[in-house]
Amino acid sequence: MKHPSIRELFDYWTEQRGVRPAPERADIEPGSIRRALADTFVLAFDPQAGHPFRIAGTRACAAFARELKGEAFVELWAAESRPLVRDLLTSVAHESIAAVAGVRGTSAEGELDFELLTLPLSQSGRTDVRVLGAFAPMDIPYWFGVHPITRLTLGTLRYLEPATTGAAEPGGVPAMPGRQRRGLVVYDGGQA
């Protein structure tokens, strides 16, 4: 994670999550992430509707020179990136795993690199309802906010394994040591 907004949101999400797969939507306090808020968004996990924005920060909207609320997140992407973005959001929501990606945005004035973070949010115990994220420009050129990004292309993608701890699970039972792997816990064992 390179961008300060991305690191701040991920650290806050991790702190709010604790030992749970994802923090509850109500656990996210906008004032606690005020420096990252302009780059932050929340998506409805709705594959049929293209995962519409529920809310989007001012800098995320400025990149496209319009309000994004209600727009389909998937429709912002170039045709070749759309299946990858759908798979990314499905993995985040169903496997309760975070992901960070490099993104290239194209406008009439040129190209701009972004960093994208997607995180699961829990709502009533389900992680397939909302996705929290941040979309941060690596530089801000003179045309940013005036000439909209018209096409996004997904670049490098990395799933982030949450740190495992020996903390107690809810109910007071100590967590067993294991490694997180794509949303699953792997326990070493077998024959000696």
Can you put this structure into words, describing what you see?
The chain has 192 residues and is α+β, with helices and mostly antiparallel strands. It has a single domain, classed as PAS domain (Beta-Lactamase, 2-Layer Sandwich), CATH 3.30.450. It contains 3 helices and 8 strands; from the N terminus they run αββααββββββ. The chain has helices spanning 4-17, 58-64, 82-95, and strands at 40-44, 53-56, 98-107, 110-123, 126-137, 151-160, 179-181, 184-186. The strands form 2 sheets. The protein has a 6-stranded antiparallel sheet, with helices on both faces. A two-stranded antiparallel ribbon has the order 7-8. The protein is globular, with a radius of gyration of 17 Å.
Secondary structure: elements and pairs:
Layout: H1 4-17, E1 40-44, E2 53-56, H2 58-64, H3 82-95, E3 98-107, E4 110-123, E5 126-137, E6 151-160, E7 179-181, E8 184-186
Antiparallel strand pairs: 1-2, 1-5, 3-4, 3-6, 4-5, 7-8
Assign a percent range to the helix content: 10-25%
Broad shape:
globular
Element-level helix/strand string: HEEHHEEEEEE
CATH architecture: 2-Layer Sandwich
Superfamily at the CATH H level? PAS domain
CA-based gyration radius:
17 Å
Low-confidence stretches are 164-177
Task: Give a short account of the largest sheet.
Answer: 6 strands, antiparallel
Structural class computed from helices and strand pairing = alpha+beta
Cα separation of the termini: 39 Å
List keywords for this structure.
two-stranded antiparallel ribbon, 8 strands, alpha+beta, Beta-Lactamase, globular, 192 residues
